[in-house]
Specification:
Helix content is about 30%, strand content about 35%. It folds into 2 domains: about 5-205, no CATH class; about 205-258, no CATH class. The relative contact order is 0.10. Strands 1-5-4-3-2-6-7-8-9-12-13 form an 11-stranded antiparallel beta sheet. A two-stranded antiparallel ribbon has the order 10-11. Helix 4 (about 210-215) packs antiparallel against helix 5. It contains 7 helices and 13 strands. With about 260 residues, it is of the alpha+beta class.
Length: about 260
């Protein structure tokens, strides 16, 4: 290794980005440097290899599983111990709220259940065949230490954010049991719910009245939105809530400019 490469390597080792710069840590300009750094150090020496071996302990029927999207590993990025890692194959267990990584090891792979307390942010490609950006982004409650709530714990999908308002989705599957041919299988059912973080307070949202409590100056607007978008609410809650929060933002900005 020449002197120039060694100096750059040492600089990368002592670089410690803050958790508040989650998105900035995964920018495209730094990506190539960190990938190059990983290649020099060697994958087996990276902190991301610290964790426990993942073993599937539930037997579920065909087409039923405890993961987000499906049972496959998807290309993603994450921040682990304040260090960005790129092009890591991940899958997200939304029953136990754990992130599993498929990591190169010698001539094979290791399937590592990462230490969740060390993950501040991760993103997963929802479709590797799509033309447009299809990354799903997740933050850890550990990266929002100013939010004091026993309910706000674990990983949350970021759907939309502006100013001090963040719309989040808690992806969760509840485990039950199902008997098929005299064999007891685990059966996982979606029990997702949605959160608004506003001014460092946590609000679970289920109805329009929850939104009205959070945004009291937008009550009339919220009522109209619900009335006009009933079909979308039944069909796609993610998109419904995202559109509503976007429109609330526009309404608030318009009020400020009057």
């Amino acid at each position: 290794m020449n002197k120039k490469s060694l100096l750059l390597l040492l600089g990368l080792i002592f670089l410690k980005p803050s958790i508040n710069e989650l998105y900035a840590q995964l920018n495209i300009d730094s990506k190539n440097h960190y990938v190059w750094f990983d290649e020099i150090v060697g994958n087996g020496n990276l902190a991301i290899y610290n964790g426990t071996i993942f073993v599937e302990k539930f037997k579920a029927p065909a087409n039923n599983h405890r993961f987000l999207l499906d049972d496959a590993y998807h290309l993603g990025n994450l921040i682990y111990e304040n260090q960005p890692y790129y092009n890591i194959y991940l899958k997200y267990d939304i029953h136990e709220d754990e992130v599993i990584a498929k990591l190169d090891y010698k001539t094979n792979f290791l399937f590592i259940k990462l230490i969740k307390e060390k993950i501040s942010y991760f993103e997963i490609e929802s479709s590797e065949l799509a033309i447009f950006n299809t990354k799903l982004s997740f933050i850890s409650s550990n990266s929002k230490p100013e939010v004091i709530s026993d309910k706000f714990f674990g990983f949350y999908q970021v759907l939309y954010e502006f100013d001090e308002v963040v719309l989040l989705k808690k992806n969760f599957k509840k485990r039950g049991e199902k008997i098929i041919d005299n064999f007891v299988y685990s059966n996982f059912l979606n029990k997702d719910f949605f959160i608004i973080l506003k001014d460092n307070d946590y609000y679970e949202i289920n109805t329009k009245y929850d939104f009205k409590k959070i945004f009291p100056n937008q009550k009339k607007y919220i009522t109209i939105f619900y009335r006009r978008n009933r079909k979308l609410l039944k069909k796609d809650k993610d998109q419904f809530y995202t559109n509503l929060v976007k429109d609330i933002r526009s309404s608030m900005k318009a009020s400020e400019n009057k």
